[in-house]
Amino acid sequence: MAAHGRPGVTITNVNRGPEVNLASWIPLVITGLIALLKVSSKLVKVRKFQADDCCISLAVVAAVGQTIAVSQQVTAGLGRPASSLSTLQIDSYQKAWYASQFFYIVTLSFGKFTTLTFILTLVQTSLQRTSVLGTMVFTIVWALLALLAIAFQCHVPHTWALLAETCFDQRSFWDGIETLNMFTDLILVGLPVLVLKGLQMPKGKKIAIFAAFALRAIDIPLTILRLVYITDTFSSPDVIYDAYRLAIVTQIGMNASLVVTCAPFLKTFMEQLQPGWSTSDMRTGLGYNTSASRIPRSHTANEYAMGTVVKPKMRPDANWLMTSTRPWLKDPQGGRTMKTTFGDDVESMLSSINPNKKIIRKTTDIRTQSERRRSQ
């Protein structure tokens, strides 16, 4: 037997709205806390508010707006029989539903850009950069087309009247939008593998980082479930009542998308990915193989850009960098050469390094040129 109470407060067989509110606000609070942890912990280390921090913050703001709009739907009658609602309530429900769709697309878009803007700072080759930028352009086009279609899905001036017969086919529209949404999610699972596969770190840690980015794949089954409920909702004789299932899945899926977006940025993964959490250090010191791929073509065969990837097992031997021939340093600005020995400072340099960790340091780009020892 159904419980009785005021509409919008007690869950009954003819009042499912409170379920939607619970499924909206609880996940949103969790999402907000995780996003706050992501941004604040990174600020402590980097002391910069970077592009990915801006994107996740805007995504959370949009999610708050979307949740408020859904709560307005509940107030107007979501989850209750349409026959029990007034014309004013039905109009309010449609307007809130209309607004929530805009916020939904904006939230997903900024969530995707959080990952993309971060990956863009780590690219090392033109192929990687092109792949990331191409995905960004695709995401922008997807979002703009979706927002434009949502804005004019029904005839002017009542573009918000989603229950009217003057709107285009909602099921076909969302099938297309969500299919492209899942496609971009698949790309965001694969892009980190392409960009980060050259990381100089133990295999186990690298797999953990890839797994953190791959958590985005969770969005795909939730999106498929949303499509199922979209079909059921628009096939129902009472859309306002049956839409509560669609609303619940939408709220869970939207918040899950932001949570998995933040996962790779949490402290454990970030310490593995970037010692010191500096993307600039990461970009300049991935290793000799990566650095070599970025050498200008004007460099001669005996010149190379030096990075400083210091491995823990490396012993501070003063003769480590010295052979029978002393290296020569070439000043890239003045063009003059000067004779020096690297071995003099190696011990002091390595003595400050934690032997338990592999450290990537950012150094000034210099050129070295070897010279054959003249026969005496």
How does this structure look, described?
It is a single chain. Helix content is 59%, strand content 4%. The protein has helices at residues 17-46, 51-76, 87-120, 126-151, 170-196, 203-214, 219-234, 239-262, 267-273, 279-284, 288-292, 343-351, and strands at 308-310, 328-330, 337-339, 359-361, 367-369.
Provide the fold topology.
Layout (H helix, E strand, L loop, with lengths): L16 H30 L4 H26 L10 H34 L5 H26 L18 H27 L6 H12 L4 H16 L4 H24 L4 H7 L5 H6 L3 H5 L15 E3 L17 E3 L6 E3 L3 H9 L7 E3 L5 E3 L7
Antiparallel strand pairs: 1-4, 2-3, 2-5
Can you write the helix and strand succession as a string? HHHHHHHHHHHEEEHEE
Helix/strand structural class: mainly alpha
* Strand portion: under 5%
Spatial order of the strands forming the largest sheet: 3-2-5
Helices, by number, come to 12
| Poorly predicted runs of 5 or more residues | 1-6, 275-376
Q: In percent, how helical is the residue content?
A: 55-70%
Give the terminus-to-terminus CA distance.
105 Å
Keywords:
single chain, 376 residues, mainly alpha, 3-stranded antiparallel β-sheet, two-stranded antiparallel ribbon, 5 strands, elongated, disordered N terminus
Report a brief summary of the structure:
The protein is mostly helical. It has helices at 17-46, 51-76, 87-120, 126-151, 170-196, 203-214, 219-234, 239-262, 267-273, 279-284, 288-292, 343-351; strands at residues 308-310, 328-330, 337-339, 359-361, 367-369.
